[in-house]
Amino acid sequence: MRPAAYTTDLKGGILRLVASGDWVARHLGPIDGDLRAFEDDTVGRDLLIDISGVDRLDTAGAMVFERIIAACGRRTARSGIIGASDAHQLVLDNVRPHINPCEVEPAARNAFVMMVNRLGRGVLEGYYTAVEVLNFIGLTLSTFVRVMRDPKRLRMTSIVHHMEEAGIDAMPIVGLMSFLIGAVVAFMGAKILRLFNAEVFTVELVGISVLREFGVLLSAILVAGRSGSAFTAAIGTMKIREEIDALRALGLDPIEVLVLPRTIALIIFMPILAFMAAVLGVIGGGVVAATAMEISPAFFVGRLQDTIALSNFWVGLIKAPFFAFVIAVIGCYQGMEVAGSSESLGQRTTLSVVQSLFVVIILDAFFAMFFLEIDY
Amino acid sequence: MAVDRTMEYVIEVEGLRTQFGDNIIHDNLDLAVRRNEILGVVGGSGTGKSVLMRAIIGLKRPSAGTVRIFGEDFYAKTQQEQIETERRWGVMFQGGALFSSLTVAQNVMAPIREHLKLPHELAADIAAMKISMSGLPPDAGAKYPSELSGGMNKRAGLARALALDPEIVFLDEPTAGLDPIGAENFDRLIVNLKNSLGLTVFMVTHDLDTLHATCDRVAVLAEKRVIAIGTLDEVRRSDHPWIQEYFSGPRGRAALTAKGYDTRPPAEKG
Q1: Is residue A271 classed as helix, strand or coil in its secondary structure?
Q2: Cβ-Cβ contacts under 8 Å, B164 against chain A
């Protein structure tokens, strides 16, 4: 096997290119640059390409010869490809009609225009999404009211199924996380408070932060990542497979069949998760207090009861159903927005998690301001 | 079936058994594909046509039997040798299976870039030629697969399969989901490419018209093996009930009549 090679000469005003070796794709890399330079010299001249010395010729090699001839721009008696065996001629004939370069990438537009374009699109899309999510929330609520007039239409099997999947199955991870967060808060708090000789305030630190914020927020974050995305993926897959259209065609309301059970299940179970998270968070703090500091469990519980107002606990718990509602609705909304390809499914699932986390934290901030104002 | 040793076989499958768990798809299956022929593989749904293709191209390891490509046992090779063999064939999957993040031209360039160290410009030229050969307009090169119709996606998939000048091309349901005109164009394209590039084509299909228009030989898959192989006429003469139903059912007859075949069932010919 000899690599492709060639020589050129100029005799009597005719350019000649004499090729030899194997003109197959893998050998063409090193000589392609020189050949392109040669191509530029051929314009308007007579050019003969002698390929009688070529052993093997594939479509890539044939393309290169035909490209040079095409660049030369004339196919006369005195220019063309000579010396081709029958087999090589067949390849050349097959390639000839297909020498038409095409663009590899879409034409790039002005970078600044594109940037402004994207910015504008982003702002508009944000606005439309907000309107549509509100729309979807309204639709879900009105469907809920309609179904509650005839409560037999509530799909209990489905609700229980989603309570298990989104709720009970999430308990181990939510419990473990909040236990660890409670422990970490106690640890960090104790370290700082020790400087002021105020280690006992660790109890308040853990109690208030876990009961009021961390328990419910952590549950919401994990549920958004676990179940919100699962809702989007499940409904989105149904959308792609036209199952949603099939439901509609059968006279069933997808909101009633798919969205309501998930939303109700999450609203019922999120407070349970938040309660468990709060309890385990406090236990985590207590364990650290008992092992790393000299605060006995009995003292810890006693001080908890004395100093932490019950309102902290209620503030945490009351937020849970609201978080559940936005997570479920955004998850389902994004699922319904999946269009066509599985690519869109991936994008929507990501969006679902990002948006529900965003809304949960915004909501949490509003709750914090609200409870501060009413001094609860 | 007697194996004619004077013919050159590029694919030889012997005693193949594939299974998913306890579910046996093929058992003791033999099949041989000659150089420069178009072999159509037909069979009812679930008879493992696509699985057979996957077993031959190394995507589904058989639990018994050998697959010889170009006379060498594919599954006995080292990974490096397998890659060498894989470069000599091209595969077109059912939906085209184009990489969605790349344009059509970049898709076709992908195997060229991976396997041959060629300058970008040359690779782009080769890709443009293959795109044109597959019957796509030049402006399709810069488009993403999601911007193309199903038929164009299949053509682009074929262009990618042809990128490295393969000796064998595997086509999985090339005309499924195409409108009749698109399917006919595709049939013609495959025959053209086979004649001009000297390809061997292994084609899984459901489409009777494609079978008639393109295939040199037909292999029928049923009962976990190849129950008949030969030219269309030879296969039609088999008295296996599935084959009779397939070729003599209303659709089979319509397709055959259109091609000028005698469609009376063989039994009636006396």
Answers
A1: helix
A2: 25
Question: Which residues in chain A have their CB less than 8 angstroms from residue B129's CB?
Answer: 59-60, 63, 95, 98-99
What are the extents of the domains in chain A? 5-98, 153-373
Per the rule left: phi > 0, alpha: psi between -120 and 50, beta: everything else, A283 is alpha
Decide if A35 touches B, using CB distance below 8 A: no
Using CA atoms, how far residue B66 sits from A191, B41, B233, B237, in Å, is: 69, 19, 29, 29
Q: Would you say the ipTM is above 0.85?
A: no
User: How far apart (Å, rounded) are the C-alpha atoms in residues A294 and A288?
Assistant: 10
Q: Please provide the CATH number assigned to the domain covering A5-98.
A: 3.30.750.24
pLDDT in tens, A200-236: 888 889 999 999 999 999 999 999 999 999 999 999 9
Residue B218 DSSP SS3:
strand
Shortest CB distance from B122 goes to which of A28, A95, A97? A28
pTM, rounded to two decimals: 0.73
CATH homologous superfamily of B9-259: P-loop containing nucleotide triphosphate hydrolases (3.40.50.300)
Question: Would you kindly state where each structural domain of chain B is located, as residue ranges?
Answer: 9-259
Q: How confident is the model at residue B269 (pLDDT cuts 50, 70, 90)?
A: very low
Nearest to A61 by CA among B105, B165, B108: B165
Q: What confidence category does residue A74 fall into, taking pLDDT thresholds of 50, 70 and 90?
A: low
* pLDDT at position B139 over 70: yes
Taking CA atoms, A333 is separated from A73, A256, A268, B90, in Å, by: 60, 13, 20, 42
Cβ of B147 under 8 Å from any chain A Cβ?
A: no
Q: Cβ of B146 and A341 within 8 Å? A: yes
